[in-house]
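Q: Hi! First time asking for a complex rather than a single chain. Here are the components, and I think there are two in total. Is that enough to go on?
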Amino acid sequence: MQLKSKDLLGLEGVSREEINLILDTTESFHEVSERSIKKVPTLRGRTIINFFHEPSTRTRISFEIAAKRLSADGVNFSKSGSSFSKGETLLDTVKNLEAMQADVIVMRHGIPGAPHFIAQHLDAAVINAGDGAHEHPTQALLDMFTIKRHLGKLDGITVVIVGDIAFSRVVRSNIYGLITMGARVILVGPPTLIPVDIEKMGVEISYKLDDVIDQADVIMILRIQLERQGKVCLPSLREYAKLYSLTPERMKQARPNAVVMHPGPINRGIEIDPKIADGDHSVILEQVSNGVAVRMALLFLFAGRKELTEKR
Amino acid sequence: MNSAKRVVMKSKDIDRIMSRFAYEILERFPNRENLAVVGIQTGGAHLARRLVTKLEKLENRTFDFGILDITLYRDDLALEKNQPIVRKTDIPFQVNDKEIILVDDVLYTGRTVRAALDALIDFGRPKRIALAVLVDRGLREFPIRPDFTGKEIQTISGETIVVKLTEENEPVDQVMLIRED
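A: Yes, that's all I need. Here is the structure of the assembled complex.
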């Protein structure tokens, strides 16, 4: 079993076998992160460029640590302090990065499709670390890995995703991935934050968290992205919190073994109560640890191929 | 292209070798407390597990046991067209100051053992590492030799040694020499 594409641009169209390969490979790298010497020589001499055109803490540092644990050389580069301010085009910039023998370019960009655009023009592998409100495949993979570790499977489980469906790239990647793996996905949020026709992706919709919370094996809370939609879609944050916030009271209706997830960063007290975020059901910090293992697996699978070396 | 297959070892041969290894190891490693067995994925891991069972029966105590996947330490990753499957590594004991018996099914170029040594050393500083192999087929490319050898079989390149074990859902244990003409 091998991955079909040279790039990981999204989980749309990625097969069940490919996702299983990535999750199984992640299992092996998870072990490396638990050793006292957290480093293997696998990607010695490979160059990985983290190109972040939008702010990021978790994803960027996670990719950086993943590259270091595989002995690859990681270089970080962000919008500020680069030649974007001098008017260089995106394509020129990435062509220059490739001319410096980058093997993998990890890219976050505010415009949906930006990684897809550069991937067409580069021999290097491109990994999408979030493009606008489109996809964030590495987050969905680490979510699925975390779920699988807790529930033992993805097939047949029910995942309730709550919050800002319209502006979330995490949710889109998770829908593609979870549906492919045979999970049932229920989206919950105010109508203004649920896109028209999203049922066509194979999901169910509910406007009330209280109606569906008891069916959930996994409750995935999304961040209200105040920087994206402003406050236009919500009457007030207080009203949102009243209807959708995951509070201890609401959690009483959930199954005793339900798992609570959040891709971070958390708005404490808005979409999730601190008591739940730090409580027994929460696997939020585990998601972060697993993120490193998933990204190690992806760098291994995408950076080590022979075609890359031969083109040089 | 024709290929000739010859069975060079059967189930009882393999079992006898594992028993012999157990006695030889106990003779040459008097300090039982520090002894640990580590098998290289996948064939070596199964043989190592069998060896541990024999050691435990003889000594009536448990021995530390681990499995090692060497994919991340291979020297030919950049030469492979596709990435090989990474399997599980599980060393559930402290490696420091241990006397480790490293087990593999076939010793050939020595590159796997080189990688396994690097991998083991990343877990700590063992006092000593000894190598036990079921088959030594010669044609070494690295200065590596086994401490415990099941059987030496002289081969030429183009020939393959295939070790079939019941743990891998094979009907019977068997070692075969396959020659492509």
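A: The beta strands of chain A are 47-52, 73-78, 104-109, 125-131, 158-162, 184-188, 204-206, 218-221, 259-261. Let me know if you'd like any chain examined more closely.
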